[in-house]
Write the structure tokens for this entry.
Amino acid sequence: MPAKGKHRRPKSQGFARAIVVAGVGGAALALPLMGATGAHAATPAAAHSVVKAAAAPAAAKTYAVKGGDTLSKIADEQNVSGGWKKLYADNRSVIGGDPSVIHPGLKLTIGQKAAATATQASAPKAAAATTTGSGYTLPVQGASIGTAYKTAGAMWSSGYHTGVDFVIPTGTPLKAIAAGTVVSAGLDGAYGNEVVIQHADGKYSQYAHMSSLSVSSGQTVTEGQQIGLSGATGNVTGPHLHFEIRTTPSYGSDVDPVAYLRAHGVSL
């Protein structure tokens, strides 16, 4: 290599000259110049290929769901390769088990799967750290009770409130009170989005008016596992969790949910 500041011309013009094009990672590629008669050789095309190889993939971005949005609409507007199915697959841990249910303010990753997705996906089971040690836990932490069990009223078809309401904002994580099997998960009339879980003692817990679901029918869950997010779907006047304990999976078989939880060591 010539000393700094001393550049020499080759004595013979017959020698091939070269240009150096920076490549990926700082490597250098020598491209021959063939002289006047060969000046239209493949040099431009070769240089173009180097530039293309150095192009970086598009970075991911975050999209905040707005009122009236659907995954299909978002995928179309944001030009998501793979459509709404790709968008849902990349954000399943955030959206939950039902791709048709998304709520305003939900943050979706677009363009590339979020690096934190694996961590988010494992978060539901980590919630079991708040359990009581009795095998049972509250369906939601730090919430006050609104309408109590057996409250009378004409707005309920049975003439009374069949569960207990926990007053919480939309998007609050909801947890399975004990290990069990999901017997239903989805829309159910006035209850909106709901999950029903059968437990080892033969009783069923029901969680209603959810904004999104994280489990599906037939899935087994553990105590404290996140099953979805609270909301205001169905027949409601505001966001809350309607929680029931039943002797069957169906409406009308309710028992006192507060007494049931207390009998299993859970304080309210």
